[in-house]
């Protein structure tokens, strides 16, 4: 297979794949008994707005899929977050966006705050050949989730006291349709985790974390290769991912054959 050139149609599909997986992920938190985290998902035209009362981080309080034709929805979006006293970010992709949207953003007093890379690549038809001391296993049972949550917690820079938070708000992905979770061990010691979402012809590499003391050992390279192979087994035609601009994560994806689709403009 040859990586396709980026057309406007393909770009829209990549953008939608991200909105779909984030919606599914946040929906899994909302579905916890009694919605203890205070999750809300709202639609404004083509855009999806996410809010989680107990999680102030930008990922969980963001707007995806905003386009020129949604410019008249900006005031309603601002009111949605202002009424909840929450800072938020709007992710602006080149898909169906232009001067009309940028003018409306500026008129509302919003400004660009950063960049983020969107990448795409091909599934791998051959099983990955990782280092002999690195093993990748799929997490399929609740009894296996403790180790996953611990590495996710440490790899995200949080203290172990926060592990219950990572347990409660990620275990909803376990055996959820379209989701696969993986644990990597280095010399039989849990070292890294990764997650993917499969929806139709596009798979998404959605999350990756390595415990600080095990970085620079090829853990994430092995996890990327495993997910590319899983995408092939699922019959996907493409794999998408996102990463901080110029980050180690972006570098790892590019070394695995991903290409930058575009650099996202982040507004707030």
From TrEMBL:
Organism of provenance: Paenibacillus auburnensis
Protein name listed in UniProt: N-acetyltransferase domain-containing protein
Domain spans labelled N-acetyltransferase: 134-268
Lineage: Bacteria, Bacillati, Bacillota, Bacilli, Bacillales
């Amino acid at each position: 297979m040859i990586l396709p050139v980026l057309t406007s149609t393909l770009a829209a599909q990549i953008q939608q794949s991200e909105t779909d997986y984030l919606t599914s992920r946040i929906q899994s938190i909302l579905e916890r008994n009694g919605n203890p985290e205070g999750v809300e998902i709202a639609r404004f035209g083509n855009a999806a707005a996410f809010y989680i009362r107990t999680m102030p981080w930008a990922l969980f309080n963001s707007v995806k899929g905003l386009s020129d034709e949604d410019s008249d929805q900006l005031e309603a979006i601002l009111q949605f977050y202002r009424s909840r006293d929450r800072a938020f970010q709007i992710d602006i992709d080149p898909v169906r966006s232009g001067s009309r949207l940028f003018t409306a953003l500026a008129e509302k007093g919003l400004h660009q705050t950063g960049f983020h890379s969107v990448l795409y690549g091909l599934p791998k038809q051959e099983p990955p050949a990782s280092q002999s001391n690195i093993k990748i296993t799929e997490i399929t049972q609740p009894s296996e989730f403790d180790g996953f949550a611990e590495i996710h917690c440490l790899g995200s820079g949080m203290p172990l006291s926060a592990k219950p938070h990572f347990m409660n708000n990620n275990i909803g992905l376990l055996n959820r349709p379209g989701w696969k979770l993986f644990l990597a061990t280095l010399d039989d010691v849990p070292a890294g985790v990764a997650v993917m979402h499969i929806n139709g012809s596009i798979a998404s590499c959605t999350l990756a974390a390595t415990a600080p003391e095990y970085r620079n050992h090829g853990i994430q390279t092995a996890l990327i290769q495993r997910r590319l192979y899983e995408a092939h087994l699922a019959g996907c035609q493409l794999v998408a991912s996102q990463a901080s601009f110029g980050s180690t994560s972006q570098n790892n994806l590019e070394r695995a054959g991903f290409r930058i689709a575009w650099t996202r403009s982040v507004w707030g």
